[in-house]
Amino acid sequence: MNQNSTEAPLSDPPDRSADETVQKVKGSDLINLFNYVNFREGTIFVGFGHPTTGESLSLAAFPLPTDQDLLACRWMPPGIPARVLSSFQLKEVLVSDGQHLVLIEGQTVSLDREQVVLRVPEFGSRKLARAVVRHPAVDIDVEVLQNGLRFRGSLVDFSAVSFLAELTPLPGGTFHGLNAGGPVTVLLEHQGRLLFSGECRILRLQKSASRGSFVLA
Question: Over the stretch 132-186, which tens digit does the pLDDT of each residue have?
Fold first, then answer.
């Protein structure tokens, strides 16, 4: 999901306990995965926790190319909140390979308002994407654009790696001509205020003549 967001993306981290079959991923494969995400102009999610209150959140970041065990990731605009820098501890990094979620607990080398640098561990953990907890959305409007087609609706729920939207074509329009394998531009708004604008992929689509359920990432 290639983002241009007006606010730092915040969400709860994934629920590890939801999955019973976890596979190890070698450090060299982790590096290849981060480079793949960079090539696709995608994002990863960096999870933080507050040591006293127990509050958890995750921030979207863009991984830079690497051929060694040091990984630098730039924060998506407008950057990391000051309260996270001063009071939170980095817990884990979450990245999707399209079918699975990979969790790593890398050592923090440096952390500032521009980026985080991590030491990639010897192993990470892979689990099925369906194991990630989803959160209900409230009063979030969604618009999806592709090659002159426009669909509008509302956000149903979201996780750290994808979100579900119920959409309908504009009056007089249809879903005919939609390329489910191609990129789409997504706009998310709350009471007229833009929260997110960027390119996404359609992971899953179920539609009738007048309504469609889109899973986007």
Answer: 566 788 889 999 999 999 999 999 988 766 789 999 999 888 898 899 888 899 9
Let me know: does 199 contact 183? Beta carbons within 8 Å: yes
52: left (phi over 0), alpha (psi -120 to 50) or beta: alpha
Strands of the sheet containing 23-26, edge to edge, are 23-26, 123-128, 100-104, 89-96, 44-49, 56-63, 70-75, 115-119, 107-111
pLDDT surpassing 60 at residue 3: no
Instruction: Note whether 74 and 132 are within 8 A (CB).
Output: no
Query: Does pTM top 0.70 for this prediction?
Result: no
Distances (CA, A) of 38 to 44, 70, 71, 138, 181: 9, 15, 11, 31, 20
User: Residue 8 phi/psi, 5° resolution?
Assistant: -65, 125
